[in-house]
Write a structure and sequence with these properties.
Length: 514
């Protein structure tokens, strides 16, 4: 199979795919992993991404030409992209490619670390169009929002094209609407807000999840920058911003800012790592269930004649049958997703209450086992701050080296070819991953160390809110596998609460991180 990487620059905030070079690296890696032949590469480098941008995409058109030059029966072609939205701006473009696949060698579209769309398969075609639709819809929303924001900014005469940074003064006007504090905007500190930022950083370091911090601020009636309630994402943006350590960043370069720092740099660096680890663990959306994102389907399914594990994340919800007196919370493997397309096997469904009690007990037991808790606490106390700082330096060193290597590849310095660049950056990624795992372990220790002596993990758990509990689980649990029930499962009584359920704890497997 011959693979054509396609990259396109866009303004989306998703970070990883911002840069076409990074998209290219991801595409190439995927092609190598699959063992495909690397064909001609295509990339569109201007920012006009959505259908609201009218510029034609030169390389996309060239890609179509290359495809059109092939015949059905030639060696199959696959287009490799980072996201479906890189390739198509409108649904018509997806349909055009699907039609081309009927008369050319184009057979597949592969999303890096994601699906392989088989263009001959009606189900895949349907989903490809579906994905394109979703992406187009998002771009619609973004475009409208951008216009609205720009307009309101012009009205309010906000400085620098930005909204007021929390913790610093915004424009103050006299009765004629003239700004009276022009030299202080974005520079002078608002003491009580600075205090909230410091408190939040301290809480992150003590193991509070962002959601709990935001909830607590809202409960205390402390508003965000524009008087609105706090959202975890907004709080996160503030806490990871280099602004609060007095740094101005421009094009990946750091400059000392004219405004003062609000928090200590070492604390901030550490908090940032904890927040990064938290966001990697988190599943998007609102979490009202303890185990969403942790619970997976343990049923076996037959695909292409092979028996494999389903392993889809279980969806949490309630079952409200007509004959039931009350609704019950459940986790289940859904056969169809919200778009009505195939998702899981549909074989697993389990009442949430006993599963959650059982898993919580397993987690607490592990935390409180003398060996485990002592080892983590001791490792933290002995090495604590110093080691965290050293690990941070180490990670930073790897990141810098990676940037150098990618820069060398772009300029052709050091005789850097694509193969060597990919190999080196792959090794560095692995090192970074190892360091982050160690830091993760340290933050687990920090949470345990933060529990007042004399208070057991059980008491801490009882006081914790849902997000804190999820954080405690996420520190040590990799997955919770729910296996199909066996006949004759009996009654199970949860000791701490005395509640009884029709439930077989032997059909729940907890996989630990370490
Ligand atoms: Zn399943």
């Amino acid at each position: 199979m011959i693979a054509h990487p396609y990259e396109r620059l866009s303004q989306e905030r998703s970070g990883i795919t911002k840069n076409v070079d990074r998209q290219y690296v991801a595409n190439i890696r995927q092609i190598e992993d699959e063992g495909w032949l690397l064909g001609e590469d295509f990339r569109d480098n201007d920012l006009s991404a959505s259908r609201h941008a009218s510029k034609p995409r030169k390389d996309y058109l060239r890609l179509l030409e290359v495809i059109r030059a092939t015949k059905l029966g030639d060696e199959a072609r696959v287009i490799v992209i980072n996201e479906v939205s890189r390739l198509f701006r409108i649904v018509l473009e997806a349909i055009e490619l699907i039609q081309l696949s009927e008369i050319t060698a184009l057979g597949y579209i592969k999303v890096v670390d994601g699906r392989l769309f088989d263009l001959a398969n009606p189900n895949d075609r349907y989903e490809l169009i579906n994905e394109t639709n979703k992406a187009a819809l998002e771009s619609d929303v973004t475009s409208k929002r951008e216009k609205r924001v720009r307009r309101s900014m012009a009205k309010e005469g906000l400085f620098n094209g930005g909204t007021r940074p929390y913790g610093y003064e915004g424009p103050i006007r006299d009765e004629h609407g003239r700004i009276t504090n022009s030299g202080r905007i974005g520079v002078a500190v608002v003491a009580e807000e600075a205090e909230i930022i410091r408190e939040s950083i301290t809480r992150v370091l003590a193991g509070w999840p962002l959601r709990s911090i935001a909830l607590d601020l809202n409960k205390r009636g402390i508003p965000a920058a524009k008087g609105q309630p706090w959202q975890p994402t907004a709080l996160r943006r503030i806490l990871i911003s280099p602004r609060i350590v007095g740094v101005r960043r421009h094009l990946d370069q750091e400059y000392p800012a004219e405004w003062p720092a609000l928090v200590d740099r070492a604390d901030w660096e550490q908090a940032r790592l904890i927040l990064a680890a938290e966001s990697r663990r988190q599943v998007k959306g609102i979490r009202r269930y303890l185990l969403t994102g942790f619970a997976y389907c343990g049923a076996e399914v037959t695909r292409n004649g092979q028996v494999i594990a389903c392993e889809k994340p279980l969806i949490a919800g309630t079952n409200s049958g007509k004959r039931r007196k009350q609704t019950e919370r459940i986790y289940r493997c859904r056969r169809l997703n919200v778009y009505g397309t195939e998702y899981g096997c549909g074989k697993i469904s389990r009442y949430a209450d006993p599963v959650e009690l059982f898993v919580a007990d397993a987690v607490l037991k592990r935390y409180s086992s003398p060996n485990f808790a002592a080892a983590i606490k001791q490792a933290y106390q002995e090495t604590g701050q110093d080691q965290a700082a050293a690990l941070l330096d180490e990670a930073e060193g790897y990141r810098l080296r990676k940037q150098e290597i990618e820069a060398a590849y772009k300029t052709g310095a050091e005789g850097m070819g694509i193969d060597r660049m990919l190999r080196l950056t792959l090794d560095l990624d692995e090192e970074i991953r190892k360091v982050e795992a160690k830091l993760n372990q340290l933050s687990t220790g920090r949470i345990l160390a933060a529990i007042p002596s004399g208070q057991s993990i059980y008491e801490a758990w009882d006081k914790a809110d849902l997000h804190q509990r999820r954080a405690l689980i996420g520190m040590i649990v990799k997955r919770v596998i729910i296996l199909p029930v066996r006949a004759g499962g009996g009654l199970w009584t949860h000791e701490r609460t005395g509640r009884s359920f029709q439930f077989d704890p032997g059909r729940v497997l907890v996989e630990w991180l370490f």
